[in-house]
Amino acid sequence: MSLTTLGLELPTDPRWVDIASMNIGEILVDHAWCEQKAASSCISLIVMYTHKVELVEVLTPIVAEEWGHFQRVLKELRKRNIPLGRQRKDDYVNELRSRVRRSIGDQHEQMMDNLLINALIEARSCERFKLLSEHIADESLRTFYRELMISEAGHYRTFIELAETYLPASRVRERWKEFLAVEADIMATMAVRGDRMH
């Protein structure tokens, strides 16, 4: 697998971007919470694996970057007089996280699963940001989503590279292929919703 490509097995249903375009306020709200959860997820990894020096060093600036994205989405909401509202349930992420192996003896394998789940979320977010950057009418939001698309692609690669720091690349690639298949299955069974980023 090339780290320069997303590698997702199932593209987003083309109907999603049209529906999302008509509900851009809802998308921005959901996006804000996605960025908050991305920052929190990186903090959780740091707390879980505080003894992994490279992981802590690599993820710390990503926490700041994801929080910066959260602030940027809040700014877009304020420009449109849209309240943040309550945090939303993310069925996509919950489904992915339910597939992480819970009881395995090898801590590195568990850590790999957690890193690859984060890589998948970033990859799907990147793909959706690309769609928004190409298809929504609001020119400023098109630019906004293009910038974030580039950032998410970098995070996606970082999570995979971190996994390969602690496990053989061949093992990471094998597990990544398994997760890609799982993610495709999840995407195939989820309803197309214009009020959710995923």
UniProtKB/TrEMBL annotation:
Gene Ontology BP, a term: tRNA modification
Molecular function (Gene Ontology), one example: tRNA 2-(methylsulfanyl)-N(6)-isopentenyladenosine(37) hydroxylase activity
InterPro entries, alphabetized: Ferritin-like, Ferritin-like_SF, tRNA-Hydrxlase_MiaE
One Pfam family in the UniProt entry: MiaE
Name this polypeptide is given: tRNA-(Ms[2]io[6]A)-hydroxylase
